[in-house]
Amino acid sequence: MNLKGKRLLILGGSRISCEIIRHARAMGIVTGVTDWYALDRSPAKQMADEAYYVSTSDIEAMVALIEEKNFDGVLTGFTDSVLPYYADMCERVGLPAYGTKEQFEIFIDKQKYKKLMREFDVPTIPEYIIDIDNFDKTADDIVYPVIVKPSESSGARGITVCHSKDELRTAMDFAAHTSESKEFLVERYIDEAEATIFWLFVDGQYYLMMIGNRHVKHNQEGVIPLPAGYTYPSSVQPRFLKETAPKMEKMFRSLGIQNGMMFMQSKKVDGECWVYDIGYRLTGSLEYINLKEMCGYDPLDMLIHFALTGKMGEPNIAEKADPYFGGKYAYNVSLLCKPGKIAKITGLEEIEKLPGVIKVVVAHPEGDEITQKMKGLLAQITVRILGKADSIKQMKAEMLEIQKLAHVISDKGEEMILPGMEESDYIGTIYE
Question: How far, rounded to the nearest angstrom, does the alpha carbon of residue 12 sit from its chain's CA centroid?
Fold first, then answer.
């Protein structure tokens, strides 16, 4: 279907929402962006055809905006908290939403979706039940370390790893203040390798897009480790497809999930994926760039198409969805930067010339600042480089070369990039 001239309203003006604008613009779609931030704090507004200042949580005002400006579709991308509002406003104005408010409310609440996973025997991280009003007694039997998380959060916000009772008490208070519901989880902290599972939903059919190794690095003191890169496909993929995928599909059917995409972050425990975080939405790892190159379909384009038509717009998805990429490989190098003001980014032109590089995406351009508040959050990722390879050897060599070529220099003349991928990260993690 030709979407040229259709009008799409995007909820949220952060820099990563510019990805939606770029894709929509390539289809000839007119884009509008709304949130309550000023223009100078909303990069996507600066890029869009139209900018509005209506809060996405003000449903009455959003309904009025959509109807007054004759938008043909609405889409939100990368923030969990906006999803129920998105479903609500779409229902009110009669436009398509890929999920329902009830579905989104489950998948933005860690307590709700972990309960659901246990019902369907989907592996998840064990947790402790702590009564904050009877802390001393209910926290007595905890074996440390543990990790404390808000029930609803994204981007690694409000999360603390604790090694003692005193740290736990402080972390619970911090997580409760970060959570909209004031609720939190205390989970066993499992310091194991990670994998991210990507699902695509089309008209009630469920397709595993891929499983990637999420290579997190302990390269900063006092915060949780963040991803320095991804490699696809993961060595855990065959076992997952045989043992865990059927259980997840039953779980999806129980909720009536029809369309959209979902990512699940997990710990790899004895070759099994133990899920600890879920997003029923696009993710900042930009895996749709890899998928377009490797398999010929693009989940972001499909979500834009759904917003404007009510259909995902990929009739041959069953033929294209191949989590093994026909025997080839894909990667994502995520350059994490320590706090500081970015004066110069170099090496990107050389990186773009490497044979496997698909795209270089700058999250924080020159002049941006990585603040102390960003430390320990995914907001520290400054540049992402997406690529492909014919062999594990080629993929490893190119990823390590990217890390040598890239430099982010602060206004004080210091290198800001934190230590990244190492030779040992590739051993036994990638499907062969």
Answer: 15
* CA separation for the pair 419, 422 (Å, rounded): 9
Residue type, 350: E
- Spatial contact of 117 and 265, defined as CB atoms under 8 Å apart: no
Please give the average per-residue pLDDT across 15-33, as a whole number: 96
The C-alpha atoms of residue 225 and residue 215 are separated, in whole angstroms, by 9
CA distance 415 to 337: 9
Cis peptide before 145 (omega within 30 of 0): yes
Instruction: Name the more confident of 77 and 305.
Output: 305
Scanning the structure block, which residue is given the tokens 């905006």?
65
* Domain end marker among 171, 188, 205: 188
Q: CB-based contacts of 404: which residues, under 8 Å, 6+ apart? A: none
Report percent pLDDT > 90 for the chain: 81
Strand 73-76 with 127-128, pairing = unpaired
- Best CA proximity match to 121, nearest among 234, 212, 243, 241: 243
CATH number of the domain within which 146 lies: 3.30.1490.20
Q: What angle do CA 235, 237, 241 make, to 5 degrees?
A: 155
Is the bond preceding 299 in cis, omega lying within 30 degrees of 0? no
How many domains are there within the chain? 3
251 inside domain: yes
What mean pLDDT, rounded, does the chain reach? 94
Asked whether residue 102 is assigned to any structural domain, the reply reads no
What is the model's pLDDT at position 174? 84
| 121 domain residue, yes or no | no
pTM as predicted? 0.92
Q: How many CA within 13 A on the CB side of residue 198?
A: 26
CATH number at residue 203: 3.30.470.20
pLDDT higher for 88 or 153? 88
Per-residue pLDDT of 379-391, as tens digits, reads 999 999 999 999 9
Tell me the pLDDT tens digit for each residue of 169-185: 888 888 877 777 777 88
pLDDT tier at 405, thresholds 50, 70, 90: very high
Whole-angstrom CA distances from 278 to 150, 298, 327 are: 13, 20, 27
Closest by CA position to 298, among listed 280, 318, 276, 314 = 314
* Same domain? 277 vs 338: yes
Amino acid letter, residue 12: G
Q: How confident is the model at residue 154 (pLDDT cuts 50, 70, 90)?
A: low
3-state secondary structure of 13: coil
Question: Structural domain of residue 164, as residue ranges?
Answer: 126-188
Q: Is residue 119 assigned to a domain?
A: no
DSSP-based three-state secondary structure for 288: helix
Both tokens of 200, joined, read 């695509």
